[in-house]
Specification:
CATH superfamily of the largest domain: Medium-chain alcohol dehydrogenases, catalytic domain
Bound molecules: NADP nicotinamide-adenine-dinucleotide phosphate
Number of domains: 3
Radius of gyration: 26 Å
Number of helices: 13
Largest sheet: 7 strands, mixed
Length: about 400
């Protein structure tokens, strides 16, 4: 939907203003803008307050308008206009949804609870926050776990808007935000308590966002934040070098990235996965073993990204001084300590800077597997699909 930059201008220094006028139209054109009105009224029909010049410029949307207004080129021209004229400028957005947010929410926990779409007025974007219009949103197992109440011990407030990662375009930035501008492509993992990605607009603290490098397509950027941060942060929990590692659930989003990062760090990587995923995990560079055989090895680092009994192989094979991390189930710290090792149950933390560093190493990461692309309106079906476990790879939602 087009957005319009409208304004009144009273020129006070004709010579200086003509310098502004000689450059500005080309900047407007380069930003895709089109002058609709430029000049003074030819006749006054009613009232008397029509002495100013009027300007009205059309842009493709509000983000394109703000990109022009905030651009370095226009920012260097603006002081000439300010010194040579008195002007008032405003934005008119013809998109009726521009001042609202439509988000999929729950009012209570429960396996049978349906997410409902709720439209509400938008407040100003927070001081340190970035407002994003999502282009693609990823479904994570944690989304239905929150809905079901599995994480009810955390202080969720109702209504709660679900969705914790995706990619989109910056629509607005808070006054305290540095490093992000309207129109930029960004990706993020939002904290679980904040959520909010299953929506047409989501506000995310700027320090949880990363710019998306040009070579990363939206389908990949949408699904890399949670998995890459989780993999990197769990590996970072082990102090010292990792000579050998075991990844349980290596075929999943987190497990596959963990295999890649460990390989890149020169670790020897063994993996446990189902037979149907064995070829995929071998191609990632891991040595696939049955749990009984893995239990007979020795590992500095074990990641349980799958849950279930295979973790037993991890306890048995953990080297002295080693670290076992589960992102899925409780761990037995005492049992690990008896072997002078550590066992940690870990939850991923949003971190924009770390995400940017990981995206700079995009070539090292495995290409995310996309299992399904569905309209955001079908979010309940998408959660059902994720929970049923009948898909291999990420389910993406398109607003
Ligand atoms: N604590 C945290 O911070 C954190 C962060 C991210 C994810 N997680 C959790 O970690 C787990 C893995 O996450 P992910 O994003 O990597 O998930 P994913 O991409 O769906 O992968 C899960 C893997 O688990 C295995 N699996 C075993 N039984 C399954 C079933 N019934 N349905 C689906 N997969 C099954 C599958 O591999 P095989 O068939 O080869 O066994 C699958 O590749 C999830 O439980 C998720 O909630 C926790």
């Amino acid at each position: 939907m087009p957005a319009y930059l409208i304004g009144t201008i009273d020129i006070e220094d004709t010579e200086a203003y003509s310098l502004y006028r000689s450059f500005n139209p080309s900047l407007v054109e380069a930003a895709g803008g089109k002058y609709i009105i430029k000049g003074k009224p030819v006749a006054v029909l009613e009232g008397s307050d029509f002495r100013s010049r009027f300007v009205m410029i059309e842009f493709a949307n509000e983000a394109a308008l703000k990109r022009f207004y905030d651009s370095a080129e226009y920012s260097s021209l603006r002081p000439i206009r300010e010194k040579s004229s008195k002007s008032s400028l405003a934005v008119v957005n013809t998109d009726e949804t521009a001042s609202t947010r439509t988000a999929f929410q729950i009012q209570e926990f429960g396996e049978a609870v349906e997410l409902c779409s709720v439209t509400s007025p938008l407040a100003e974007v927070g001081h340190d926050e970035v407002r994003i219009q999502p282009t693609l949103i990823a479904v994570n197992p944690v989304d239905w776990k929150i809905r079901d109440g599995i994480l009810a011990a955390l202080p969720f407030q109702f209504p709660h808007s679900l969705g914790c990662e995706g990619v989109g375009v910056v629509e607005a930035v808070g006054e305290g935000v540095k490093g992000f501008q309207t129109g930029q492509r960004v990706m993020a993992h939002s904290s679980l308590l904040r959520g909010g990605w299953f929506a047409d607009r989501v506000d995310v603290p700027a320090n949880q966002c990363s710019l998306v490098p040009a070579q990363i397509a939206d389908e990949h950027a949408a699904s890399l934040s949670v998995a890459s941060l989780t993999a990197a942060q769990t590996i970072g929990l082990h102090e010292g070098p990792i000579g050998s590692a075991l990844v349980i659930g290596a075929s999943g989003a987190v497990g596959s990235i963990a295999v890649a990062l460990l390989n890149n760090g020169d670790s020897r990587v063994d993996a446990i996965c189902s037979a149907s995923n064995s070829a995929y995990v071998t191609a990632l560079g891991a040595n696939v073993l049955p749990p009984q055989q893995a239990a007979e090895q020795e590992y500095d680092f074990v990641l349980d990204a799958s849950g279930g009994p295979a973790i037993e192989a991890g306890y048995r094979s953990l080297a002295k001084g080693g670290t076992l991390v589960s992102i899925v189930q409780p761990v037995d710290e005492v049992r690990a300590l008896e072997n002078s090792a550590k066992a940690i149950r870990y939850s991923v933390q949003p971190n924009g800077e770390q995400l940017s560093r990981l995206m700079a190493e995009y070539d090292v990461l495995p290409e995310p597997r996309i299992a399904a692309l569905m309209p955001l309106a079908e979010v309940n079906a998408a959660l059902h699909l994720s929970k049923a476990g009948r898909v291999r790879g990420k389910i993406l939602l398109k607003p």
